[in-house]
TrEMBL record:
Keyword Cytoplasm attached: no
Molecular functions (GO terms): DNA binding
Keywords: DNA-binding
Highest taxon listed in the record's lineage: Bacteria
InterPro entries to which the protein is assigned, alphabetical: Cro/C1-type_HTH, Lambda_DNA-bd_dom_sf
Official protein name in the record: XRE family transcriptional regulator
Domain HTH cro/C1-type: start-end pairs: 16-69
Length: 133
């Protein structure tokens, strides 16, 4: 169990695949943007390790930082999504019925990505300010 946990935490290829899927991008689109074949993307996503230069290029195309790819976890995304639903009713039958019929009027993944991009932009601005001083 420990080994599979450690592997999933460190498997950069799977993380790239998940982020690509969350961004609504197909392997072929990523391949075209990187100037390589779709088969090369498939193989890359099966690799546990990815070279830093390649990771930087992929991160740029996906619109995230390489640190975001390295630190990505499905669990964090699911926690954010599950924490967005709050029921104010004290009736447990209402809670069950309303949670089954809960459909947000926005795409939660897009909102998470949007928030992450705003935070990332803010951090970049801070870095730029530090570099100019």
């Amino acid at each position: 169990m420990e080994t599979s946990e450690k592997t999933s935490k460190m498997h950069l290829g799977r993380k790239i695949s998940r982020i690509r899927e969350l961004r609504g991008m197909k392997q072929e689109e990523l391949a075209i943007a990187l100037g390589i074949s779709q088969q090369a993307i498939s193989k890359l996503e099966q690799n546990e390790q990815v070279e830093d230069t390649t990771l930087e290029k992929i991160a740029e195309v996906l619109g995230v930082s390489s640190e975001a790819i390295k630190g990505y976890s499905d669990e964090a995304v699911f926690n954010i999504i599950s924490n967005t639903f709050h029921n104010t009713s004290s009736d447990s039958s209402t809670l069950i019925a309303s949670s089954l019929n809960y459909q947000p009027s926005f795409n939660t993944i897009e909102k998470i990505v949007e928030l992450y991009e705003r935070l990332l932009a803010s951090e970049r601005e801070k870095l730029d300010l530090l570099k100019t001083k």
